[in-house]
UniProtKB/TrEMBL annotation:
Sequence ranges assigned to domain Ubiquitin-like in this UniProt record: 35-113
Alphabetical list of Gene3D superfamilies matching this protein: Phosphatidylinositol 3-kinase Catalytic Subunit, Chain A, domain 1
SUPFAM superfamilies xrefs: Ubiquitin-like (SSF54236)
Cross-referenced Pfam families: ubiquitin
Protein name: Ubiquitin-like domain-containing protein
Entry's transmembrane regions: 14-39
InterPro entries named among the record's database cross-references: Ubiquitin-like_dom, Ubiquitin-like_domsf
Alphabetically ordered keywords of this record: Membrane, Transmembrane, Transmembrane helix
Organism: Stephania cephalantha
């Protein structure tokens, strides 16, 4: 009976060890998934760098922007520049494949119903027109 009890105790210990390892792995995956990312929200000549988590909804991102731009969330529209897709308020960044350092265009509602067109100004390429890359004068 003594050896049978040892086997049971050993199996019980193995189950406990396996359970602990599973918890550690799960925690590691959760930490990986919840890593912060940054998105670049652009409108006209302005860029906002917004720190967020992949699990945040677009509505939560709009609420962060609301404090920066003083525009209600219902008057904001976010568009993923890489795909041109309008981001849906109820979906998360991960759901809509928004990755770290993504460029998101911000448009605002103009006359009560329509949103303005995307307008993101980029630096004038003719400024760097010399072959060596130095500014032209």
């Amino acid at each position: 009976m003594g050896s049978s009890e040892n086997n049971y105790r050993d199996e019980s210990d193995l189950v406990k060890i396996a359970s602990c390892l599973l918890k550690i792995l799960t925690l590691g995956v959760m930490v990986f998934v919840l890593q912060a990312l940054y998105i670049r929200v652009k409108r006209n000549k302005t860029t906002y760098f917004v720190q967020c988590d992949p699990t945040e909804t677009i509505l939560a991102i709009k609420q962060k922007l609301c404090s920066l731009i003083d525009q209600p969330v219902n008057d904001q529209r976010l568009i993923l520049r890489a795909t041109g897709d309008v981001l849906e308020d109820s979906k998360t960044l991960a759901d809509q494949k928004v990755e770290n350092d993504a460029v998101v265009a911000l448009t605002l509602r103009k006359d009560g119903s329509e949103f303005e067109d995307v307008n993101i100004e980029t630096p004038n390429d003719s400024f760097y027109s010399r072959e060596d890359g130095s500014p032209s004068r």
